Amino acid sequence: MAAYVDYKFKRGFLLDEESLRKIHDILIKRVSLHNGTIMYHLFREDAYSYKTTDVNDLINEENKKGCKIVDLNILVSTIDNKFEFSWNFSSEGSRLKIEGEDRDFVFLLSSDIKDHFNNNIATSLVSSYKILDINLPKIFMVMTLLYLMCSFFIFPSSLQSRKSVEMAINSKDILEKLNFLIKDTKLSLGFETPYFWPLLGMMLYMILDLSGIVPYVIKVLFPTNLFKIGKEKDQQEKLKKLKYNLVWGVLISFLIGAGASLFVWKITLTS
Description:
The protein is an alpha+beta fold. Among the domains are: 3-126; 230-271. Helices cover 57% and strands 22% of the residues. The protein contains nine helices and nine strands. The chain has a six-stranded antiparallel β-sheet. Strand 5 and strand 6 form a beta hairpin.
C-alpha cells in the first residue's frame, strides 16, 4: 500500500555544514535500497541557481551579502519511480514531501528526518516572522490591559481624599498648603498614577512596531530560516557572542542597581 507524507515544519531552521552532512548520510542510508539519486537544487539571491549531487558544493558556498543562499531543494529520484522525496528550505520555513509504494519505508524515513530536524536544525522560534509580527503587539496590549485592571482593584486611588483637602484648607500652616498644592499638581499631570507609565510604554511599543524597528530587532537577535554556511556562519558566531555579552551586562547592571538600592534603604532606616 502506497504512503504519502506532506509536512510543514512549525519551527524555523539554522542549516549548517554538520546538519547538511547528516541529512546526506540519512538519505544515502535509506535510498540506497531503492537505487535512488540525491540531487541538491540551490538558489541564490543574485538570481543564480544550480543542481549538484555533491553536498560539498553547498558547504563550499561563500554565502555572503549579494549571493546568499535563499532556497534549497533536496530531491531524491529512483529509476523505477516507486519513490519520490522532496525537502525544501526557504525564508518561509521548511517543508517535507515523501511518496512511495513501500509504506514502512516512507514513514521510517519521515521519522528520521523529523527527529534530525527537531534535534539539530530547528530554532526556538516559529518558521515565519509574520506570526511574531501579528502576535507580539497583541500579547503586549493584553499584558498592559491586565496590569491596568489589576492596578484599578489593587492600588489605592492616587487622587487625594476629601479629608486631606479639608485638612489643607483648614490648616493655618502655609507650608502644608503649599505641599498640598504641589502634590495635587503632580497628580493632575498623571505621572504618579499607576496607569500613566504602562500606557506610555504601550504607545511607544506600538510606534516602534509599526515603524518596523521591533520586528527588525527580533530578526537580528533571534535569527531563523538561515543557511549557516560560509560568511553567514561567522556572522552568527559574532551575534552569539554579542547576545552573551548583553545578557551578562544586563544581569550585572541589575545586581549593581539592586545592591545600591538596598544599601541606600538600610542607610535611610538607620539615620
